[in-house]
Amino acid sequence: MSKKLLRRAGFLAATLAAGIFAGAQAAQPIKIGSFLSVTGPASFLGDPELKTLEMYVERINEAGGVLGRPLQLIHYDDAGDASAARNFASRLVRSDRVDIIVGGSTTGTTMAAVPLIEQARTPFISLAGAVVITDPVKPWVFKTPQSDRAAAQRVLQDMKDRGITRIGLISGTDGFGRSGREQTLAVAPEMGIEVVADVTYSPSDTDMTAQLTRIRNTPGVQAVFNFGFGQSPAIVTRNYAQLGIDLPFYQSHGVASDRFLELVGRAGEGLRLPASPLLVPDSLPDTDPQKRVVQAYKSAYEQRWNTQVSTFGGYAFDGLMLAVEAIERAGSTDREAVRKALESIQGYVGVTGVFNMSPTDHNGVGPESFRILEVRNGQWHLIQ
Fold first, then answer.
1. Are the C-beta atoms of 156 and 191 separated by less than 8 Å?
2. What CA–CA distance (Å, rounded) separates 359 from 357?
3. CATH code of the domain covering residue 171
4. pLDDT tens sequence across 163-174
């Protein structure tokens, strides 16, 4: 065989091998890792989050995947335990070698995993609320829920609009409640509101009557704000009604779900909280850019799972869609390229709000993304 033919044969063989390699690469799944509190005390967070991720990974794959590759969801149930979350995060980055992580139902589980994820240089979109997750900014860590600081600002602004300037604060001693308390105490003076009573409860407490009585007996209290999540806010709400406290009552976004209404029953009448518009999508004006998004998500979720939609599932929807958007913008799963793409996302209309990320803001939504809802006749109603 002549040298010319040998060169041509070698070229064709190399081209064929490259084509086979590229085809194999294209067929490889994009690995989405997740650790969620699907069982345990925070299951009301993790269960709808996992259902959402499973449903939309299926939908995306049915539509052709991302960059021509299918998504593969690899998830673990940390049951709300920080040590388990850290171990699962280690497994995701070291053994499973995921491309990006969307998860972390609670602040505690998220923060337990952050150092390891940062060391592994893997993009991570948390579904937890505390401001400490993204402030100060950590290069590889993002999140979808509004921060507890933003929630405090939104609640205090609504109070201020009602002429309230002196409040009682009650909060849990868990990570979410503790951070929420700190943020409320920090922003209240800036907004001209004085916290004249400040009490706490343990997540294991089954009665908060003593704490609420202390607030009720504090001179000058005009409203009460509870910062917590899980079963505790429902207990606080029932105790509040039992004591007959006749003052405006607020909860945080940590209980923004229809399940909370079931837990509190008539005791919840009149309370207000900040939430995404997911709980009242049909109340939004047609000009609201989020209306179509939240209606579509609510309809799809409830039809698939035959259960009521949850704000927390909405956080997972936004997390997955932001991950997909970043991968598509990056044109690959190169971690640094995906990280930079996440930082560049502007004007993304999600369930939680309109996200505007930047190198100095890895959350992208602020107080203005919250809607104030009020319980009337056992249902959520949009106030503003």
1. yes
2. 7
3. 3.40.50.2300
4. 999 999 999 998
